[in-house]
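Internal QA ticket QA-208
Title: Verify multi-chain structure generation after dependency bump
Assignee: T.L.

Test input:
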Amino acid sequence: MSWFRRRTPVAPLDYGRRLWMRAWIAAVALFLYAPLLVLIVFSFNDSRANIVWKGFTFKYYGKVFHNEGLLTALGNSLTIALLATIFSLILGALAAVLLWRFRFPFKASVEGTMALPIVVPEICMGVAMLVFFAAIDWPNDLVWPLSLGAITIAHITFCFPFVALVVRARLASFNREEEEAAKDLGATEWQSFRDVLLPHMKPGLVAGALLSFTLSLDDFVITFFTSGPNTITFPVKVYSMVRFSVTPEVNAVSALLILLTVVLTTVALKLQDVSAEAKA
Amino acid sequence: MQDWKRQPGFFAAIAAAPVTWLILFFIVPLAIVWAYSFGRNTGLTSIDISGTFANYSRALEPLYFEIFLKSVAVAALTTLICLIVGFPVAMAIAFAPPRWKPWLLLLVMLPFWTNLLIRTYALLSVLGTRGFVNQTLEWLWNHCGWLMSAVGLPEPGPFQPLPLLYNNFAVIFGLVYVHLPFMVLPLYAALDRLDKSLIEASLDLGAGHWTTITRIVAPLAAPGIISGLIITFVPALGSYLTPELMGGTDSQMIANVIERQFKRANDWPFGAALSFMLMYATFILIALQALRNKTIEARS
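Actual output:
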């Protein structure tokens, strides 16, 4: 591809081929990616100080995999994200079908309230969860998976409205005649839901699942208010490490999480490709 | 769309779980915070909800109200910078050849999907006094000193690292870094829907690119620009992590004050009042946006 030699003259609307536009995009890309690249590169730096390149090493990755607290936190985060995703999918799909299919009294207020967890500032949500679990005397000495209950509940609350939003957007393209045809041919309500509506919802559900998994895994502020000493999640742990010092170990952890993000994004894009091909 | 009365059983089966969840784990917690905002501390852990407005009047005292105004100003400046930086990017993506579009969008989306904490941490290590930016500047300073003497100016003194962290500049820089994708995506969505022939007509009729952008593109994309402004402003106003990690003592935002009331200061009623001030500000903005959309719909 020729970047500098133009084969055809630049059309008036070809903004992407103008030099100043390219320079701007390059500058923004540098702004967005340079800090992350520096972080990844220095995770391989063989020096405690984070500034001068001393040599290549994997030792900080080794340290990460021997850091008990960090691994526990990662396990907690993945467990919470998985549980929150499953529950958010169910609740979000039900909410989407409810709002898409039925006319009922106070529908506008239910719809508005459903969108609230998306717009309420994170800090207010975190505070509300802290106050709520204190007010109902939520026990904080439960055994392991149950001890994550409070955080999981908080995560489901802010994840499922996103699932509802995505699934409902998908439902808008559903042809109701398909469902009516299924019922005419003798399908029960449940059968037509399972065999006609659900397959149509699937791309929305996949997108919603990825969205809630990422949201849950990333959340710091709300978790910060609901987590106790025995229920540290990955972002909360990284936060306490960052607070103390800027070390190559934190760089290594961050690089691993960036890698996870890239993998998840690739999977999401692949899945979208597959579903687009299936449609075509 | 069917009326719920036609299938009340099915309706109830679908509605029960999400509505109950929303009431129990969202409305009730917020209601408790709201009630606390009218209460006062009577002991270490007990709060008496007496219906007092003392917390709100304290929130309006200059000390706290100034922080609130400052948060608004910081969020507004962040939003403005995001608009200036993001608009050309959104234009370039919207007018890019179709096979490039997904990749350019991915370029903007990938940092957006990356953990907020990690992005903030990356900035910390780049902007610090011994960070990458200052290292580069120091190298330039030390190696370009001869340039100064070459043109007859005195030799520069030793390099002073720029204070790029723990001040207001750092907070705004960090907020722009984090919120730029929030601005680019709605702008792109609006610009992509534009009727391109209108822009071509404007250019054909002799208007320059700048005139076309300000007089044709911007007014047509106004709904997208406004939703971009709100989508960026709202989370920027309530941001906690960026001012906490990158700000100095004088760059606290409202969320940091709220956090302190609930953790260190242990004054829950006052924290509750501050949270609700932030919520009201958010709601007013979103209501204005909704109202605007309604009037536009009504007109067309």
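Spot checks passed. Chain B touches chain A through 86 residues (CB under 8 Å).
Status: verified.
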